[in-house]
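User: Is it possible to get a 3D structure for a protein together with its bound compound? The compound here is adenosine-5'-triphosphate. I've pasted both below.
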Amino acid sequence: MQALQKIDPISELSGVRIEIEEVGKKFGAFEALRPTTIDIKPGEFVSVVGPSGCGKSTLMLMVAGLMHPSSGKIRVEGKPLSGALTDVGIAFQDHLLLEFRTAMDNVLLQGVIRGLPLEPIRKRANELFERLGLTKAANRYPSQLSGGMRQRVSLARALVLKPAVLLMDEPFGALDALTRVQVRHDLEQLWMTERPTVLFITHSVEEAVGLGDRVLVMAPSPGQVVDEIQIDLPRPRPVSLGEEPELSAFSKRIYDHFARLGVIHR
Ligand SMILES: Nc1ncnc2c1ncn2[C@@H]1O[C@H](COP(=O)(O)OP(=O)(O)OP(=O)(O)O)[C@@H](O)[C@H]1O
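Assistant: Yes, that's possible. Here is the predicted structure of the complex:
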């Protein structure tokens, strides 16, 4: 019954607190992530930006409970994480939709594999499809959808059970620039209504700044957080991020880090 209540129409804020305390990861002698402490507030949107190999995915996999830290602890709502997070939605760069199921059936699969009653999930999926402009796509197969639509279906799938935590690893990486702007806006709108706690990994400085309440800037060798930037700007943020001087100032601060670290050359 609890599961049914959880996916009833959206009302309450659903995010949880995630405490990452001195969490580090070594693969043999190689230090992929230096011990790192991050306290993520319930419903906070935290972006993580950094070059390839700085440990972003490693951090996300540990928060998902899919990889064991070599050191430190992760707590969710004060409880030590011991195994895979369950109340979570995950979206990757690759949409990972099943080609032989329609868009709707891909989303409903979240309920099927958990043995949940499907009707309330279908209702919620229909609402999400409507909000994401996917209503006409519901009965199409992934191969019949554009890249942006597939990624939106993947977003609907991640959100359909109204998870407390949304983990996204470069979810818009494969999209063209304009579609990327649209899906970013869609994600922000959905997050503003439902407020899951989000860990959003990206290579895009503008996207990190445009979406985050806070941006963690990472650097490689060893992977580490080199700056933490609070983005206290109103939402929804502008569609064209470059036109907002305050956002551009944050982006510049991040590019300066990458220039200093030799990640980009000027
Ligand atoms: N299972 C593993 N065994 C050994 N090394 C690994 C393993 N997983 C990741 N690494 C290494 O740890 C470092 C961090 O990897 P990670 O995938 O977290 O980086 P990333 O910042 O997400 O990179 P990208 O942006 O390219 O996805 C890399 O040098 C990677 O090669």
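The chain has a mean pLDDT of 90. The pocket of adenosine-5'-triphosphate is lined by residues 27, 30, 32, 50, 52-58, 223 (CB under 6 Å).
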